[in-house]
């Protein structure tokens, strides 16, 4: 249930960013003082909706709910690994949100296309480290799911 609550909260955060993007596109003049804030908002919105809403709800929430039911067990094989996997998501999201307030100069889009990331910025390092933490969380969940399937 923690994954579901986290995913819903992240979805509301991403939806609020979507509203800000739509308000910016609705007017002819710029609401932001700098266009880089707008581009950064698009990048962070895409990452939050994909990696912090969709993946925790589908993989974390449904996997932790359906897999023990299918295996007829009370819990997964490694509950502490599952807990560690969830708690890796929180600093990952905080690093992603911190990018909006540190240095608003990254405009690579949600793909992080290599010719566009020839910038030496701390925000780019925060984004990449945040995605690595999110990937570690997914890997730990996958290890827990696979070990539960093969051992139980």
TrEMBL record:
GO CC, one annotated term: mitochondrial inner membrane
Cellular location(s): Mitochondrion inner membrane
The reaction(s) this protein catalyses: 4 Fe(II)-[cytochrome c] + O2 + 8 H(+)(in) = 4 Fe(III)-[cytochrome c] + 2 H2O + 4 H(+)(out)
Record field: transmembrane: 6-25, 37-64, 84-102, 123-151
PROSITE patterns: COX1
Highest taxon listed in the record's lineage: Eukaryota
Enzyme class of the recorded protein, top EC level: translocase
Membrane topology, from the record: Multi-pass membrane protein
Protein family according to the UniProt entry: Belongs to the heme-copper respiratory oxidase family.
Function: Component of the cytochrome c oxidase, the last enzyme in the mitochondrial electron transport chain which drives oxidative phosphorylation. The respiratory chain contains 3 multisubunit complexes succinate dehydrogenase (complex II, CII), ubiquinol-cytochrome c oxidoreductase (cytochrome b-c1 complex, complex III, CIII) and cytochrome c oxidase (complex IV, CIV), that cooperate to transfer electrons derived from NADH and succinate to molecular oxygen, creating an electrochemical gradient over the inner membrane that drives transmembrane transport and the ATP synthase.
This protein's name: Cytochrome c oxidase subunit 1
Species of the source: Pseudococcidae sp. BIOUG32302-E01
